[in-house]
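Hi P.,

Sorry for the delay on this. The queue was packed all week, but I finally got your sequence through. Input first:
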Amino acid sequence: MRRRPARRLGAAATALGLFAAALTVTATPATAAPGHGGGYQALIQRASYGVPHITARDFAGLGYGVGYAQAEDNICLIAETVVTVNAQRSRTFGGSEENVTSDLFHQKAIDGRVVERLLAGPRDGVHSPSGEVRDQVRGFAAGYNAHLRRTGVDRLTDPACAGKPWVRPISERDLWRAHWARMVRASSGALADGIVAATPPRADGTSAPASAPQATSIVDASDGAPAGVGSNAYALGRDTTVGRSGMLLANPHFPWDGDERFYRMRLKIPGRYDVEGAALVGDPLVEIGHNGRVAWTHTVSTARRFVWHRLTLAPGDPTSYLHDGRPRKMTARTVTVRTPGGPVSRTFHDTHFGPVVVVPGRFDWTADTAYAISDPNAANNRALDGWLAMGRARSVGDLRAALDRRQFLPWVNVIASDDRGRALYADHSVVPRVTDDLAATCIPAPFRPLYASSGQAVLDGSRSACELGADPDAAVPGILGPARLPTLVRSDYVTNSNDSYWLANPEQRLEGFPRIIGDERTERSLRTRLGLLQVQQRVAGTDGLPGAGFTTGNLWQVTLGNRAYGGELVRDDLVRLCEANPDATASDGTPVDLTAACAALRGWDLRVDLDSRGSHVFTEFAREGGMRFADPFDPAAPVTTPHRLAVDDPKVRTALADAVRALDGVPLDARLGDIQTEPRGDERIPIHGGWPEAGIFNMTINVLEPGIGYPKVRHGTSYLMAVELGRDGPSGRQILTYSQSANPNSPWYADQTRRYSGKGFDTIKFTEKQLRADPNLITYRVGERRH
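Then the structure:
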């Protein structure tokens, strides 16, 4: 492999420039023709904060550049993901119960050749991935491997995996396995414990002991959202923006550590594909972002991703079930994985619906009954082609057509706007086909309250008439077609903050959709309500900022205004109650003096800024269940009700007492920036934002440590983008809150985090003029011939 000096542009006095100096030699670009038998070549331009702008002449070359750049910044995260999806966590990281369960789940998929089956079929992007997407994935693997080969495992600078034997070259199949795991994140993956734990009853008919905590968690959840994720989004149309153009706020709330971190990048094949934004580390295409005319983002949807089937078992045979009166034998497959303590085997049982699952105390496997699930996302091989089509859309109409054709979004809504000033909300995600008629006919009476309250459907698995069936307009059988899914296009705005579709815009409520997608005419979260109020007040010019209507500047200010809506509603009443009754009792019976808490709350500025004092008292009060209201929810006024604190409810004062107890040793009047931080080496970077229970839009989730505060962000605001689609091209602001690299020795490990701490930003750099204006721009080429 021949090497060539890179070309450097602009100043290099920053850490970015110093890092790039180490990249003055790279692989030479390929001279062979592009294509499956040709070579790879890509131009990488590293802008400020290490963000790569990657240009190639084909998708194989583009994938190569993405794989190379992501490996430079986050090779350990990708390598660990490959270990996970190849069922090697136990032998690599120890035989904990969690690792063994993960290995058994993934080995079952490997033995069942799940990925190989998903890649079979016509390469049309619907029945199986297109040639363009396959080239992108193939190129990604080659680019990753080229960086690893050039650097060497022993010379990696990230201590998380330097010199580790589990860092190895990867294959296309590794990447497809990782992609499949993300598709089933809210369905089979969330039920992995219950799938692994599913064991036939003993000979005496009693259930075998089972422990499935993860499965229990998803069953208990009030919606279908994967644990630990969420988002806010605004799509603003021409009636609400100062420039009369489309504008978008992307504000996903994802983990700050691990393989679900976002990665900023701009990808371009001249004349074919040109998108700036972010993807999850290890993914080869932009998933949240914009092109020259359309911008889009995702929020986690409330729709359920799997359906339960109650099986009536054949008498005397707990591994056979009756279907239209005839017994059908379950398919048994024994899976074995290696652990430090020796091989571990489990026998899994599958039905024609899908795997048998056990959730102790809720869905048990007895002599008479068992439960299996249908998981349409387990066959979702359309997603990468879907995001590719979104990146090529020229209007909201184009984007909607791409959603209708492919129906690929695994567990998220889409919120989008275009340069004509149209705003779109759609829950066009993969939703099992449980219509109102099917639910009424096929959900047994004991399970109807569960469906009404949570959208979890338990169908009668003994009748073929109760199978999911097919909608004529659906991309594949077993899912709701586009005509049954909620969609809204407006010229003012749409929003979502992880409640259902119902109130995407209060002026045009979406109603009459199957319960499995979400609830209607029910109380919204405080975060949803604040999100709507912020838009309404900005349009009216009543939020204290200059003028009326949105610019990207004041959209940023609104998003990071750090209002605590719960405090705006009840703080004054809480203080009066507290001061009148300072002696309280915690839920464990401990007497608590509330005097200092009263004073801290009275002095609080009702925000969660770094300088806000006492905000943590209110946060813990809300987390302890103190947000109890005296007035009822009114479906006719869903944005403003309920709003009065239930001062006569003794649980309100108990919650405040519990909050004081939880904060043991943390000064109640402390500045938030002194107690809520993110570590970067020896540095502790102060972080604003807070928990949604307090009605905070800028979500920051962390664990309270008594006497210390909140020393580590778990998840919350991650990739933040405010983009306007103007006549001169896209413009606006963006930031990756935890920075581009997880490597503590990277110059891009903490720079955006510090910037975010001060509510700063990086600019949109989509046009050539915007990119060349970056004083830290570094350019180099990567590539290789294929032999």
